[in-house]
Amino acid sequence: MFFHPMDFLILIAFGISLWAQMKVSSNFQKWSEVPASSRLSGAEVARMILDRNGLYHVPVEVVPGSLTDHYDPISRTVRLSEPVYYGRSIAAISVAAHEVGHAVQHQQSYGALVLRHRMFPVVNFTSGAAPFLLLAGFIFHQFSLLGLGIIFFSFAVAFQLITLPVEFNASARAKKFMVAEGIIFPGEERGVNKVLGAAALTYVAAALISVLELLKYILIFTQSNEED
């Protein structure tokens, strides 16, 4: 069975995901045109917040591309895309502060982040093997392979669900930092919320898709066992 009623819900979730990605781009573009009152660049904001939290050893580097910003927990480096690193807009400083939020999480051993880091090697393997196990289970009607594929896929779903509090917490830290340090003023909080809120929605949509796919496979597995 390659079509299931759950596919309709998954398509809706995909639609939400595409909409969320467009919102990220449009909000970033819109608030990239609004200068921050502090006149600080994304790189300067990142460096300021890192230093305020005693993270003098964490470098801030520029990377090519757009929306390629991330925190590398292995090298403990904040990497910002060129529009964020050099930008002095609400969008630029919001994204920079968010990535620094992950560095502070790392420093403070934030529970969800620690768990995600520990899960990564396992998820890296299981997420690669799961599609082949699921496909083999469907083609050869081997319920043991299908069941194993579902178990492997569930690790990837758990990883995405754990990512949600990590991202939401990083955004909350970013807003708190910027207000406390006077980087943004009350009238600018709306723009920060728009930029970071749209980004968070993409993670929610991705998690929703994964959960629905997992439920679909579980239902197929259960129904197939009952038919036999």
Automatic annotation (TrEMBL):
Superkingdom in the source lineage: Bacteria
Transmembrane segments: 122-140, 146-168, 195-219
Cited Pfam families: Zn_peptidase_2
Keyword Membrane: yes
Keywords, alphabetical: Membrane, Transmembrane, Transmembrane helix
Matching InterPro entries: Zn_peptidase_2
Record protein name field: Peptidase
Organism: Anoxybacteroides voinovskiense
Lineage of producing organism: Bacteria, Bacillati, Bacillota, Bacilli, Bacillales
